[in-house]
Amino acid sequence: MTVSPDARNIIDLTRYPIHRPDTPDYDAGLATIRADLDDDGCAVLKGFVRADCLASLEAEAERTAPFGHRSFNRTNAYFTQDDESLAPKHPLRRFYDRSNAFVPADNFGPDSMLRAIYEVPFFAPFIQDALQEERFHRYADPLADVIVNVVEPGGGFPWHFDTNNYTVTLAIRNGEGGGLFEYCPGLRTPTDENYDGVRAVLDGTSDAPRSLALEPGDLQIFKGRYALHRVSPVEGQRARYVGIFSFVENPAMVGSVERTRQLYGRVLPIHVENEGQRSDTLVD
């Protein structure tokens, strides 16, 4: 019989009393997180997972890593196909090597610590409070609601935008070097792709990029739909593991067929049926 982990024993609820809304400690922590999100679209909760749980969390990632879809290809920041009607230097035509893996969500069942965190009743409301969003749902995509990103030595993730408006990540294990998270907050908006700004980042002439070093157990709340971001190549002999929890505005939204195929190596009927179910018209 499978025993489901209790997220109350995984999250450091003494440091982050997210299970006790409308208390002074909850409100104080929330104010800090909201200020960080307002400043640059990113907030980090250091040591969100208890230190005594990190080894088990890493073991879960290590156990599921072989089920990740590994891809070695070239992609642009939007995960779209080339468009030869555009100028060669247009961001949609700028392709870069991508080499990493995503362990699909259907590998994280009732015995998963990551899924326990994602589905504990007070986690989503806390994230919603932090983001101050009226429309807020757990991701309906059965391959992508709870996943692990695996970046093997030498691999990285080039500049890109997220499909989801908000992404919540949990650092599980770092490589021996590299693997730095870099991001450009608010580079585009729901109504403006800002291709000139994206081009400047890709050309290395922009001062927009910021960098962030995350440690195992740190939780990051990130507005990745509008912030161009990347992970620099991992160095050494050890893979980098990051858990990803996804939330969206539209309860029917799932990944696009093209992007899902690229990231997970397969597409389910729901991806075809719900194609285009999103709240903006941005390029994916």
What does this entry show, briefly?
The chain has one domain: q2cbj1_9rhob like domain (Jelly Rolls, Sandwich), CATH 2.60.120.620. Helix content is 23%, strand content 24%.
| Helical/strand content category | alpha+beta
Number of domains: 1
What letter string, H or E per element, gives the SSE order?
HEHEEHHEEEEEEHEEEEEHH
Termini, distance in Å?
41 Å
Question: Which CATH top level class fits?
Answer: Mainly Beta
How much β-strand is present in the residues?
15-25%
| β-strand number | 14
Task: Give the second-level CATH assignment, the architecture.
Answer: Sandwich
CATH superfamily: q2cbj1_9rhob like domain
Largest sheet: 8 strands, antiparallel
Shape verdict: globular
Q: Uncertain spans, ≥5 residues at pLDDT below 50?
A: none
CATH topology: Jelly Rolls
Radius of gyration: 18 Å
Amount of helix: 10-25%
Comma- or semicolon-separated keywords:
alpha+beta, 284 residues, Jelly Rolls, 4-stranded antiparallel β-sheet, single chain, 14 strands
Description:
This protein has 284 residues and is of the alpha+beta class. The protein has a single domain (12-273), classed as q2cbj1_9rhob like domain (Jelly Rolls), CATH 2.60.120. The protein is 23% helix and 24% strand. It is built from 7 helices and 14 strands. It has helices at 24-40, 54-64, 113-119, 123-131, 195-203, 257-264, 269-273, and strands at 42-45, 69-75, 96-103, 137-138, 146-151, 157-160, 166-173, 177-178, 181-184, 210-212, 219-222, 228-231, 234-235, 240-248. The strands form 3 sheets. Strands 1, 2, 3, 4, 5, 7, 11 and 14 form an 8-stranded antiparallel β-sheet that branches. It is globular, with a radius of gyration of 18 Å. The mean pLDDT is 91.
